[in-house]
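User: If only I could read backbone structure tokens as easily as an amino acid sequence. Those tokens are not coordinates but codes from a learned vocabulary of shapes. Could you go through the record with me and say what the backbone is doing? Here is the record:
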Amino acid sequence: MTKGKVLVVDDEYKIRSLLTLYLLEHEYEVITAGNGKEALSLIEQQNPDIVVLDIILPDISGLNLCKHIRKYKEIPVIYLSCLQESETIITGLEYGGDDYLTKPFDPNVLIARINALLRRARGKGLLKKNEEQMESLTSQEKLILQWIEKGYTNKEIAQKLKLKEGTIKVYNHTIFQKLQVKNRTQAIVRAKEEKII
């Protein structure tokens, strides 16, 4: 069993390869992207536990990518960049980043920071119910659940979020799993019990 799934976003193949080796050695599952578009697709499809993000990407700034991620996900984001100016670091954190590491970097320090952020995220991300642990919903999942309560179909929700209908079905499955229910009606009842909606 792995410690978690890490998405490494960097346009440098050597950096992606190096980080993949280190993360695999520390029992993490690794997925990689060389640009922002690919990263967003992987986040939607693979649901990583944490993102290691370069700021200088060929198609979009890592800062703006982080800001976009924050609209839909609450996963931890660590910037890994050659940019060392205080203004850039501050902006990165203000845009939703959780940590900032400058290049050149010590891979062991990065691993330690990933471990720390995941411990913190998992500590916050669990709700207790009847001595069982129920994972909390992301902001995107809560939004979808609110629309489900209002009677919107998967197709209508997909149009609102500009996603594929199949992606909404995957979200529904994840929501049902987290709430430990089997259908929309049960999900709404459980969410109200937990005061999620």
Notes: Residues 156 and 165 are 8 Å apart (CA to CA). DSSP finds nine helices and seven strands in the chain. The two ends are 33 Å apart (CA to CA).
